[in-house]
């Protein structure tokens, strides 16, 4: 991703805020003790945590609106090559992260993690697929065509769920994407967080997620074209409110749901993203209040690298056993943070500590002018 220029520092802040939030919600000291806003909705509905991933995809689209201008100067063949290369690299990183650290504990011994149970999809693979699809759509269909394509995808997804779902098409059991994932991916390569093979980053639900990137791209283009004006700010806020209203109306017949990434969920999260960016732009760009932004911009300047690093560290925690039968993750929580704040506060402090630790790493990288591009 390409970092937005300092003229739009607020976009860096938005991206960094999203990465920091991803680390916060992914790393509680104990999953038994998590404040409700930091948990995903059980099924229908949307918590603050459910906003984080679509915000990241929206930020990918923002960044893409700056990068595509450079791509256009390189010629069609070069554009295709760049998009495919970046897509495959991000997808490959996701697969490696899913497999990492390549070994696991089994009956007191370290054994290789079998490829036969490797999860194929997930957060990074979805980022890759959504970026690649959105980039090609924008490249070939241009701005208006991309907007129309996004609308068609959202409506077509609704139709597919109704036409091919069984029973309640918006339930786990009736969801049309579940048999598709089992057929193409295989149950052994799917997520089992619901207690059964079900991938919240599955094949079918990736299609509406592409629209989060497209809308992020269109918002980025609009901001660049209108510049730092109150007209731009007002139109962003109005569009955000309209999308939230439309999503809440659609929710009555097509529930807002992250796990199957419903079309109403796309509109809802894009609307909130537009409002949040509007607020950030007013504070940062219009009022010039930038002192507080450094903490978030250091995440925004190396977003994928810092997120990958956070995943690597946590997986290493689970591998290391400072005492027999207890991994580093639980030992650190129970020995350091739980005594300080108890169960709930200690669990939150554990997550907040890691956000600050990765912010420090990002700050050091920024000072050294180290920016890892994918």
Automatic annotation (TrEMBL):
Protein name: DUF5009 domain-containing protein
Keyword Nucleotide-binding attached: no
TM ranges: 12-31, 51-71, 83-100, 120-138, 145-165, 202-220, 232-253, 265-284, 304-320, 340-364
Alphabetized UniProt keyword annotations: Membrane, Transmembrane, Transmembrane helix
InterPro entries, per database record: DUF5009
Organism: Chitinophaga oryzae
Start and end residues of each DUF5009 domain: 10-86
Taxonomic lineage from the root: Bacteria, Pseudomonadati, Bacteroidota, Chitinophagia, Chitinophagales
